[in-house]
Amino acid sequence: MKASTTLAVLAAAGAQAHYTFPGTKYNGVAQPQWDTVRITQNHYSNGPVTDVNSALMTCYERDPGVGAPNTLAVTAGSTVSFQVGSSVGHPGPLHFYMAKVPAGKTAKTFDGKGAVWFKIYQDGPSGLGTGSIKWPSDGKTEVSVQIPRCIANGEYLLRVEHIALHSAGSAGGAQLYLSCAQLSVTGGTGTLNTGQLVSFPGAYKATDPGILFQLYWPTPTSYTNPGPAPVRC
């Protein structure tokens, strides 16, 4: 099969594999959908954000300014999961960002705007250069991240983001699936250096090498995640 035909088939199949991140899971307990996660504009369609300059890049909210009904209490150093509806159906990197809620706001009322976000996790592919690239999140029905032990106590937004690269060979082709959970964190040491804070939109450009990316042909030999490096305790 010619490469162009292969890409067309893959793109058509990809349209049937969209997904959301509608709920959190903590200490083995799954929260109801859209209870601690802000309801997203794609909660019915499962469709992605494709414009990295869109205001939807913040939390993809259906109702900006409303917030989720509840805030999840977690301990620094513990693991928080997002349920996936229904599974991660496209290849690409998984990222997690956090933003500390400023004084005078709560996790429910904070809009997440401005240079407030720091990255706490990113992954990358295996099999580069082989024509058989795999991503850790492929097919997952749940994705998880550890909250840094050295984080300051307080309320935060936790932003999950998966970038689907199956049609990212042209500008605007990458598909971003994301949502934001509301957290209240205790037990942190407060010693974390958050480093470079970024904004959404603003952190990415459509031409960033991790956004504009030929996944299938020519066979890629490297991948550069967009955005800042993850923070470390």
TrEMBL record:
EC annotation from Swiss-Prot or TrEMBL: 1.14.99.56
Q: Which InterPro entries match?
A: AA9, AA9_LPMO
**Any one cellular-component term (Gene Ontology):** extracellular region
Please give the chief subcellular localization of this protein.
secreted
Which cofactors does the annotated protein need, by name? Answer: Cu(2+)
**Keyword hit for Disulfide bond:** yes
Known catalytic reactions? [(1->4)-beta-D-glucosyl]n+m + reduced acceptor + O2 = 4-dehydro-beta-D-glucosyl-[(1->4)-beta-D-glucosyl]n-1 + [(1->4)-beta-D-glucosyl]m + acceptor + H2O
Keywords on this record? Carbohydrate metabolism, Cellulose degradation, Copper, Disulfide bond, Hydrolase, Metal-binding, Monooxygenase, Oxidoreductase, Polysaccharide degradation, Secreted, Signal
Q: Name one GO molecular function term.
A: monooxygenase activity
Subcellular location per the Swiss-Prot or TrEMBL entry: Secreted
- In this chain the Auxiliary Activity family 9 catalytic domain maps to 18-223
**One GO biological process term:** cellulose catabolic process
Q: Which Pfam families match?
A: AA9
Q: What class of enzyme is it?
A: oxidoreductase
| Family, as annotated | Belongs to the polysaccharide monooxygenase AA9 family.
- Protein known as: lytic cellulose monooxygenase (C4-dehydrogenating)
Organism name: Apiosordaria backusii
